[in-house]
């Protein structure tokens, strides 16, 4: 599976967590639940990590909800970013929604 590693945070300021994982699950840092990630669906691809939860040595726990032995051949990577990353699918949904509304209006005008 994967091993726990500790990381030091120098300034103790807020950070954004991002990871590259195959499914969905939860991330816990120093007994603080950062939240759920869902790689394939989004929209949230990053999790906010408040500076107050960090110590000199930190422990991150990833709870994978789907699949087993996800990290059989890979090691998970945790990075801290300045800005969050979002995965948007609004164009796909918006176009379908617009087409449905257009069809609905057109159909009801003639009946």
UniProtKB/TrEMBL annotation:
Stretches for region Disordered: 89-111
Protein keywords: Glycosidase, Hydrolase
Gene3D superfamilies: Galactose-binding domain-like (2.60.120.260)
Domain Beta-galactosidase galactose-binding intervals: 24-57
Classification via InterPro entries: BetaGal_gal-bd (IPR048913), Galactose-bd-like_sf (IPR008979)
Protein name, as recorded: Beta-galactosidase
GO MF terms held by the record: hydrolase activity, acting on glycosyl bonds
């Amino acid at each position: 599976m994967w091993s726990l590693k500790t990381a030091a945070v120098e300034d103790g300021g807020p950070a954004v967590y991002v990871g590259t994982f195959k499914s969905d699950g939860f991330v816990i840092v120093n007994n603080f639940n950062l939240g759920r990630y869902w790689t394939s669906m989004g929209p949230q691809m990053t999790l906010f990590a408040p500076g107050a939860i960090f110590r000199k040595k930190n422990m991150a726990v990833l709870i994978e909800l789907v699949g087993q032995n996800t990290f059989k051949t890979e090691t998970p990577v945790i990075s801290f970013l300045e800005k969050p990353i979002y995965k948007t699918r609004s164009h796909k949904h918006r176009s379908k929604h617009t087409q449905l509304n257009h069809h609905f209006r057109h159909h009801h005008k003639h009946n």
